[in-house]
């Protein structure tokens, strides 16, 4: 039944949210206009607060309505029909919420609401100018989901549009205007992963947090308060750096667990679009630290803080305008919002850069001359390296934008993205990593002491010598195992080790002094470990699934696929590196049952989500389903059980890489399974499976007339005909009164195990039917053909087919845990820095003079 009430309520709430954001932005602007910081017009301030609260409630109402549509399977709405389906669990319905453009905009708006309410409560004298910027951003973002059409002008794309309005040309509307689909198209299979429940909210919270330091910086320029904005902006910048960084690595880990390109970062333009602003955000954090410590780099801080948010907006344009449609598989399609996105970006570029140019001469400039022994110099150089790395990625990623712009003004452009994007970006980014690792170690050591040639030499001697010794040992080991180390790998290894050891030496020194640990030092150790993990896992991945059979698997495969994969026939062991590997069958995910369930234990029914248990399904002594029970399954993915056994040690483990044949998404969608060890991972994924969209090619049926107890030989196997018995509902027969159904009971002896086979003979309304039974492991099918009751003879047919197989790729990823553990350590470092600033107030603007150095008798100043 068509239900438009919830959609109308949601659309009305969007309009209320847009109007309230407009009122809030104008009211906060009027409250602060022409007044000094902290002096606001009380009437306008109250109106601004009230309007933002109304905006917040309206946004929550929009979220409730949209999730209600998804959860209630209201497929009369296009958003629910195109992103969800009946059989999705609730946690994947949450993923459906932000799979579409409108839902992801709404998620971003929601985080701004949460942060805005915090700023209203604790912003104090900064509230009016900062919230004017905040509400202005909300105005633009809410317009993206407004879905209002004024003549030929469309403002936003509504998530509450009806299916019949989105697809008005479907013939069904003419015959049935109230038609509602019974099911939706479902959630993208690759997004049905727990990381997709937590990664997007984390990433969008990081996006939202970049607005706060931007708003403080713009408010500082507006009110002529060029220094006081730094302290409150610093806290929010730390939060943004931590959460956005963790969100990016969450996405990388999702790719590692879910996609089959063999790693965690593919330099896809959409990946780059979030990586670029994070680099600039971290650079801006170092600029703010420099100002707080020594009154330097304030102009740089303004530029970088503003650039971070503008790059977030630019990333939004890249991923949502459709300009990357041919360059990235991850970008959204254009919903007609390109013009709004350009206006949105242009408005804030003009506002912020215009203010910056206007106030540029008034921004204080340090007169302190930086020398080689000033740590500020090396912090500044490190921030510059980050910005250069961001610019290199930005320049190349934006090639489709250049082409689109030149085409718009009538100039034909032949610019193209690099053919090998991974090699292109890696060539430059490795050297950025070298700079980051080296300068993070050097600057951190110098930061906590008074520096001259003698003191610096003494401090760097121990970590420097240890770095060279460890690097030399690693290089020798790499060469001993037959690998080559390029110059850039040697340099990155050495500088990353220096980053770890130099920061660690300073952290230990602070512990000895009983000084609070440096959050920056801990974060820098984490970054250096991440670089080591990237170097080891990406630079020295080892493909262990080399084709040593001499066979060409398929002429349709490229040369690499034929060389770097192993063919595994079902139940036949094959050598692979130091392992013997055996593919042992196909499995399904059954909700409520631990692990996966063998497909041979389940009989498919007309409903693809329901099966019948052919035998008891149990784990240990616990029976989850008895034979004949209806078992619900998740049929989208098939899990292929692969056993690994180390020939030398005898250690064994089992992996379940999954695959799904989905022609709409390009054929085989494969996700890896990973065996994790302390020093490496074994990363395995399916490269090919037998065609599932066509019937198996069975041999001609060979008939056998048997009596109970007879034995027949089937190629390399034999089977014993044990009995004839009444057939059970496990075959999905739907037996009714008057029907006759019997089944043969065979025990087939395979190479490794025995199989119970039950072909069925049915008589219904004087018509004979036969339901064959198949042993997929052996490629056998038995059919119950006839019964001779007078002679107690039974005729069975046996046919064979090619055994099941998979083509598997397996890669060894050395020391990849350094990447994940380094990420955690980086987050801990950010958290420590945030904790140290919890008591700072935005009213304080005290910083040591430029010439001040920490004295032995007093505790050093805490830095990020």
Automatic annotation (TrEMBL):
<keyword id="KW-0201">Cytochrome c-type biogenesis</keyword>
<keyword id="KW-1133">Transmembrane helix</keyword>
<feature type="transmembrane region" description="Helical">
    <location>
        <begin position="815"/>
        <end position="835"/>
    </location>
</feature>
<feature type="transmembrane region" description="Helical">
    <location>
        <begin position="50"/>
        <end position="70"/>
    </location>
</feature>
<feature type="region of interest" description="Disordered">
    <location>
        <begin position="841"/>
        <end position="864"/>
    </location>
</feature>
<dbReference type="GO" id="GO:0020037">
    <property type="term" value="F:heme binding"/>
</dbReference>
<dbReference type="GO" id="GO:0015232">
    <property type="term" value="F:heme transmembrane transporter activity"/>
</dbReference>
<dbReference type="InterPro" id="IPR003567">
    <property type="entry name" value="Cyt_c_biogenesis"/>
</dbReference>
<comment type="similarity">
    <text>Belongs to the CcmF/CycK/Ccl1/NrfE/CcsA family.</text>
</comment>
<feature type="transmembrane region" description="Helical">
    <location>
        <begin position="105"/>
        <end position="123"/>
    </location>
</feature>
<feature type="transmembrane region" description="Helical">
    <location>
        <begin position="337"/>
        <end position="358"/>
    </location>
</feature>
<dbReference type="Pfam" id="PF01578">
    <property type="entry name" value="Cytochrom_C_asm"/>
</dbReference>
<feature type="transmembrane region" description="Helical">
    <location>
        <begin position="236"/>
        <end position="255"/>
    </location>
</feature>
<protein>
    <submittedName>
        <fullName>Cytochrome C biogenesis protein</fullName>
    </submittedName>
</protein>
<feature type="transmembrane region" description="Helical">
    <location>
        <begin position="203"/>
        <end position="224"/>
    </location>
</feature>
<feature type="transmembrane region" description="Helical">
    <location>
        <begin position="522"/>
        <end position="540"/>
    </location>
</feature>
<feature type="transmembrane region" description="Helical">
    <location>
        <begin position="460"/>
        <end position="481"/>
    </location>
</feature>
<feature type="compositionally biased region" description="Basic residues">
    <location>
        <begin position="855"/>
        <end position="864"/>
    </location>
</feature>
<feature type="transmembrane region" description="Helical">
    <location>
        <begin position="275"/>
        <end position="291"/>
    </location>
</feature>
<keyword id="KW-0812">Transmembrane</keyword>
<feature type="domain" description="Cytochrome c assembly protein">
    <location>
        <begin position="102"/>
        <end position="321"/>
    </location>
</feature>
<feature type="transmembrane region" description="Helical">
    <location>
        <begin position="12"/>
        <end position="29"/>
    </location>
</feature>
<dbReference type="GO" id="GO:0017004">
    <property type="term" value="P:cytochrome complex assembly"/>
</dbReference>
<feature type="transmembrane region" description="Helical">
    <location>
        <begin position="428"/>
        <end position="448"/>
    </location>
</feature>
<feature type="transmembrane region" description="Helical">
    <location>
        <begin position="130"/>
        <end position="150"/>
    </location>
</feature>
<dbReference type="InterPro" id="IPR002541">
    <property type="entry name" value="Cyt_c_assembly"/>
</dbReference>
<feature type="transmembrane region" description="Helical">
    <location>
        <begin position="378"/>
        <end position="408"/>
    </location>
</feature>
<feature type="transmembrane region" description="Helical">
    <location>
        <begin position="298"/>
        <end position="317"/>
    </location>
</feature>
<dbReference type="GO" id="GO:0016020">
    <property type="term" value="C:membrane"/>
</dbReference>
<feature type="transmembrane region" description="Helical">
    <location>
        <begin position="487"/>
        <end position="510"/>
    </location>
</feature>
<keyword id="KW-0472">Membrane</keyword>
